[in-house]
Amino acid sequence: DAGVIQSPRHEVTEMGQEVTLRCKPISGHNSLFWYRQTMMRGLELLIYFNNNVPIDDSGMPEDRFSAKMPNASFSTLKIQPSEPRDSAVYFCASSFTGTANTGELFFGEGSRLTVL
Amino acid sequence: QKEVEQNSGPLSVPEGAIASLNCTYSDRGSQSFFWYRQYSGKSPELIMSIYSNGDKEDGRFTAQLNKASQYVSLLIRDSQPSDSATYLCAVNMRNTGNQFYFGTGTSLTVIP
């Protein structure tokens, strides 16, 4: 089975431009997570979807960030306008959440964003 | 207080020694605990999960969980240079709607 698929793997853009990151979760998983990783702050949870519904977006830094999950097999994270401090590796991860607990997280390979 | 805390290290051990990694968490109701390994430039990969108090062994890895103390650890026996990586503790917190929270990671170097 294919794992979590993210695109693009690398993105270099200029400040002020719009950035869209994409994620395809593992088929059958009902939870999707977007994380941002930097050396200073480690892995930060940005937003969490369950059954395509955003459950908690309290980690989204500010209004410049938005995320959507229009169906069970696709999610996007958009930054508009981008700023140099947004430079980081953005990971998408998916899991299956049951009634008792949540199974392990499977990560995509990440999207490395550089904003000049 | 952060939800999940780890000693950032770096931790260095000689080849063949035991490496001990520690993690504490804030949500007493948490039920699922995981250790991930992340090589430089790669994504985190799961190496151990533990759900009940006590020890769980898988090859050279042993996870230990103490819910009363809100503490989880990972022991790596017979450490190998290939174990050199950052180890991330993750907790699935029920009181926050099943989000996964990660510690900042402990960098481990195994010296040949």
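qc> Chain A has a mean pLDDT of 92.
qc> done
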